[in-house]
Write a structure and sequence with these properties.
Keywords: Amino-acid transport, Signal, Transport. With about 375 residues, this protein is an alpha/beta fold. The chain contains 13 helices and 15 strands. It is elongated, with a radius of gyration of 21 Å.
Length: about 375
């Protein structure tokens, strides 16, 4: 029998996530699913988007009713803020392990997902990242690591190939933000660009908290490249593109999914229309149930989804699907069931390879027209 203190903690958690009290009264078991993303800091808008997707799924599942192993289950989303910081990420990962979550949706960044993955692996807890693209994440030999997006080893070559063949880029200056994500994306792009005959004029580094890019932009202006490729997030990529334009840099601004957000125009201003970026997943408008997801997300949160909330939504359903197939809420049995996942959700069909990567990845390429993110092309991997 659960002691009084544990029952109070569960009741408080349920209240935080606005679950009907009736669910508490009739649930035989409360099951925690962890979620981690930066909910504060420069990319909190992306972290909140991820959290919203997971929240929406949990609310839907509880409303429909869930039974596992003959027990009525109430899900609680145990959401944590890692602030995009690797050290904080390991601290909140340990907190989730200690709170006995059965699986984790997260983290958002590669630089937080990778260090946290060791703790989840040691605990035998499934970790599904909806957005971490660095290949290292699933190459560590852990059985617990899964992701719902393509990798930088797929994303960066697709971007390089597009700008070489369609935009006829012959030279590029590369800048990264010194994070695992930014460095990995930039390195993969440089490798593929060189193979395609694009001349890499320089490769500079900034950091993910930088606000002044004028020195780097001035240096690049002197190099006169056809394009600048930036490995980083929109919180820094937007101001970088804006400042480069203000200094008279005419080069195309290339970036990956960290920059490729619908809200980029608020950060980059008029320079947004000079951006071409890739996203390590299918475009929302091409997803089988993209329109329906957009409608219910907008109704629930008052604004459209941003980037990877469809993946966090599907991640929760994939975890529940594994529970159903295992007929258990035991983390070990959920982990065993994850390997044979074949789930059809908002993002399409999810089947994992032996490392936990998608077997059917998609890369989407975008440009901005009068500040609006617009699909250019989709590439199946």
């Amino acid at each position: 029998m659960k002691n009084i203190r544990n029952m109070k903690v569960e009741m408080m958690a349920l209240a935080i996530f606005s679950l009907p009290l009736g669910n508490v009264a009739y649930a035989d078991e409360v099951v925690r699913i962890g979620h981690v993303a930066p909910l504060t800091g420069g990319i909190a808008h992306l972290g909140k988007d991820n959290e919203n997707g997971a929240t929406l799924a949990v609310e839907e599942i509880n409303a429909k009713g869930l039974a596992i192993g003959g027990k009525k289950i109430t899900l609680v989303l145990d959401s944590q803020d890692d602030a995009g910081d690797p050290k904080t990420a390991t601290q909140v990962a340990q907190k989730l392990v200690d709170e006995n979550v059965v699986a984790v949706v997260g983290h958002l960044n590669s630089g937080t997902t990778i260090p946290a993955s060791k703790l989840y692996s040691d605990a035998g807890i499934v970790q599904i990242s909806p957005s971490a693209t660095n290949p290292i994440y699933t190459l560590q030999g852990f059985k617990t690591t899964y992701r719902l997006v393509a990798t930088d080893g797929q994303q960066a070559p697709a971007l390089a190939h597009y700008v070489a063949k369609k935009l006829h880029v012959k030279s590029v200056a590369i800048v990264d933000d010194s994070t695992a994500y930014g460095q990995g994306l930039a390195a993969e792009f440089a490798k593929q660009a060189t193979a395609l005959g694009i001349k890499v004029l320089s490769h500079d580094a900034t950091n993910d908290h930088a606000v002044d890019f004028r020195a780097i932009a001035t240096k690049i202006k002197g190099e006169n490249p056809d394009a600048i490729m930036y490995g980083g997030m929109d919180a820094t990529g937007g101001p970088f593109a804006k400042q480069a334009r203000q200094l008279g840099v005419q080069a195309k601004f290339l970036a990956g999914d960290g920059v490729c957000s619908p809200t980029l125009s608020s950060l980059a201003g008029e320079a947004t229309d000079n951006v071409v970026c890739s996203e390590a997943g299918a475009a929302l408008e091409t997803m089988p149930e993209g329109a329906a997801f957009t409608a219910k997300y907008t109704k629930r949160f008052g604004h459209p989804p941003l980037v990877y909330s469809p993946e966090t939504y599907d991640a929760v359903y994939i975890i529940v699907d594994a529970m159903k197939r295992a007929n258990s809420t035991d983390p070990k049995k959920i982990l065993d069931a994850m390997r044979s996942t074949d789930y059809h959700g908002i993002t399409g069909e999810t089947v994992f390879d032996s490392k936990g990567d998608l077997k059917h990845g998609v890369i989407s390429l975008y440009q901005y027209i009068t500040g609006k993110k617009t699909l250019l092309d989709s590439v199946s991997m």
